Amino acid sequence: xxxxxxxxxxxxxxxxxxxxxxxxxxxxxxxxxxxxxxxxxxxxxxxxxxxxxxxxxxxxxxxxxxxxxxxxxxxxxxxxxxxxxxxxxxxxxxxxxxxxxxxxxxxxxxxxxxxxxxxxxxxxxxxxxxxxxxxxxxxxxxxxxxxxxxxxxxxxxxxxxxxxxxxxxxxxxxxxxxxxxxxxxxxxxxxxxxxxxxxxxxxxxxxxxxxxxxxxxxxxxxxxxxxxxxxxxxxxxxxxx
Length: 241
Hints:
By secondary structure, the protein is mostly helical. The chain has helices at about 1-10, 25-30, 35-50, 55-70, 75-90, 95-100, 110-130, 140-155, 160-170, 175-185, 190-215, 220-240. Helix 7 (about 110-130) packs parallel to helix 12 and helix 8 (about 140-155) packs parallel to helix 11.
């Protein structure tokens, strides 16, 4: 079960302590559990919505979004901020883009992108709750975190060292494909809403992956986080329409 705990520790800020330093193979196998962590986060949000009961919709949406960010510790938002700065400041140059992405400071572009994404998520959450479709919320983190393994499975990792390289080099290809297929089939139990969500996620994934290949030749940990945030935003908007 070590790969499960690695996935939970990396994708959330829940108090998880590993017995020892994981091996690269265990880190790679943790990708098998990314979709399950996404489902777990979705169920936590669903439980929180249930506990909020008849709370005013605007306040519900604000509290749910705050909990959502807190669960991940803003990890993927940080990746989105770094990617936004790098994409604009890199002027199309691969190495300059990678260098800016490593800079921990956030420029005005990063701030603008973060505000816009969070604003869109909040507005979509309000619409989803007003429509009485809050139960669909579970699909959003589940689907987005299912696409992270797919990104590492189909896209070269271009930054040497770190967790991302271990994930890319030691991911279990055949079992991972089956895991993604099974999760996709289970999602289809949500009916037409799942089809719309999958379509929106696929469109964002394909477009972003093409841009990553064009600019960088592959992905990094930051761009993977950015993709997750943009997929969540797109799926949430699609479900709320």
